[in-house]
Description:
The complex is a heterodimer.
Chain A: E1 2-5, H1 14-27, E2 30-32, E3 40-47, E4 50-57, E5 60-64, H2 66-71, E6 76-84, E7 87-91, E8 94-98, E9 103-107, E10 112-116, E11 120-128, H3 129-133, E12 144-146, H4 154-164, H5 171-188, H6 198-213, H7 222-229, H8 233-242, H9 247-264, H10 272-278, H11 284-295, H12 299-309
Antiparallel strand pairs in A: 1-3, 2-5, 3-4, 4-11, 5-10, 6-9, 6-11, 7-8, 7-10, 9-12
Chain B: E1 4-5, E2 8-11, H1 20-33, E3 36-38, E4 46-53, E5 56-63, E6 66-70, H2 72-77, E7 82-90, E8 93-97, E9 100-104, E10 109-113, E11 118-122, E12 129-137, H3 138-144, E13 153-156, H4 161-173, E14 178-179, H5 180-196, H6 204-222, H7 231-238, H8 242-250, H9 256-272, H10 282-288, H11 294-305, H12 309-318
Antiparallel strand pairs in B: 1-14, 2-4, 3-6, 4-5, 5-12, 6-11, 7-10, 7-12, 8-9, 8-11, 10-13
Helix pairs in contact in B: 4-5, 7-8, 9-11
Amino acid sequence: xxxxxxxxxxxxxxxxxxxxxxxxxxxxxxxxxxxxxxxxxxxxxxxxxxxxxxxxxxxxxxxxxxxxxxxxxxxxxxxxxxxxxxxxxxxxxxxxxxxxxxxxxxxxxxxxxxxxxxxxxxxxxxxxxxxxxxxxxxxxxxxxxxxxxxxxxxxxxxxxxxxxxxxxxxxxxxxxxxxxxxxxxxxxxxxxxxxxxxxxxxxxxxxxxxxxxxxxxxxxxxxxxxxxxxxxxxxxxxxxxxxxxxxxxxxxxxxxxxxxxxxxxxxxxxxxxxxxxxxxxxxxxxxxxxxxxxxxxxxxxxxxxxxxxx
Amino acid sequence: xxxxxxxxxxxxxxxxxxxxxxxxxxxxxxxxxxxxxxxxxxxxxxxxxxxxxxxxxxxxxxxxxxxxxxxxxxxxxxxxxxxxxxxxxxxxxxxxxxxxxxxxxxxxxxxxxxxxxxxxxxxxxxxxxxxxxxxxxxxxxxxxxxxxxxxxxxxxxxxxxxxxxxxxxxxxxxxxxxxxxxxxxxxxxxxxxxxxxxxxxxxxxxxxxxxxxxxxxxxxxxxxxxxxxxxxxxxxxxxxxxxxxxxxxxxxxxxxxxxxxxxxxxxxxxxxxxxxxxxxxxxxxxxxxxxxxxxxxxxxxxxxxxxxxxxxxxxxxxx
Lengths: 310, 319
């Protein structure tokens, strides 16, 4: 947890401090000097590849130019929850105006500009793009999405966002809450799906969830998925093809990710073989080999690097 | 267009009064839930709206008082292996399992292992009892929340963030017209929340207040100059009661009045030391910081900084 504030900085230097310390180093954005007095505060928490920030400031403007994007390319989604004041975001050809309690998603690979109102307070989550995209591939159609405030899932998403801002939660909790948040954003952004694709997209989401829930079963196969959803084997394969992967590759990656998360937790007393079996692997040497290819180290080394950190 | 997982409703409403209980026993208790029930002494009425998808089942159940038993025989009759979650929406239930008695009331959640026999007494407190019920396969739950193996029954009564989110998910899952996708994603969230419930948790009334306090202080700092700044005024701005406002300030171990006076004195002291404000008189500075009584300002300034406002200004002019 890191906290930066302009409070202790002399007034004349506040903006340049903010520009250099926060905007340039942390967020790779270029702010524009405000005309009035400036003050800003930010609290940042990182957990693995995930980052969460609470930002509070007087009015100013932010630009992430193509140059900023090139300098620090980021395959992330930024999720904004406005808690006070207003933010106006322009990205590609879309504009979103966020008032209190509004949520928007923005693709970090595209330049954007934002106008922040006075006394603004925002909760920001930065999540790897594949995490969101594997659940809600329809979001990649546009760079900027505002969640409709009429959605019945926006309130739950908001509550998860706020909980994720808490300083006291550990990596394991963060992973679970982030997964829930991604699921809720998927549900809340479903109205963005063109009606002709609605059925397919939501069924794909259900299919992936079914696979995640049955990850521990070694017999999880395209046949099992097809019979659970009463669809053909061909349809199962074409759904995965649309996600840019195959059933086998998706399953292996998801199982390896699940193992790596358990290994990251502090359960030292668990045998690695037990963890692998619980994630659906039934051949240890296959697991070891695949893990090494994915993470460039053995499962034991992976675990030890986190044990040492703690 | 989207595959909607519909619900089925059984109700005793349309049934002749004498046959109500046996209908309920056969149709719902035996076929759906595999439990044995004891006939209530009084009039009986019940209804249930349930949704099933694969091994998942969600229901809202309403009834007058009666007793339920899940016996060893019921358990061995059943092919599925699951956990049950109950969210009490109205009335009281007393659950007895392996000698432990758990009473649960409105908003409490109970998680029970479907493999263990239990006895539940549903109380009649003059109104119908209402529950949301979730039936989840053991494999789903134990993979995510192995802590549930520790005891056969858990009651989640604390008003924590995770219990609150669990409650909200259960209500969503029993709502009308859910699609397959919604059902799948919400169930996954529910299982994640069960895993989260094992973590030390923030009481629900702590998260929002922290955010609100930051906002309150920020508002006050920006309106220091306004002599009308009072607890009532600020509370009205935020749509909260004056009592809540005072509660928020308690976290700073300060009262609103004390905090405001200190903030105003700090602001005036800074202004007195600011070369750009040398042209302003001391009284002007005091007024601009929200003081409207000069002698009160002078006295509190002296108490806080040990010097008078004019001395403080002179100290800085000399340098």
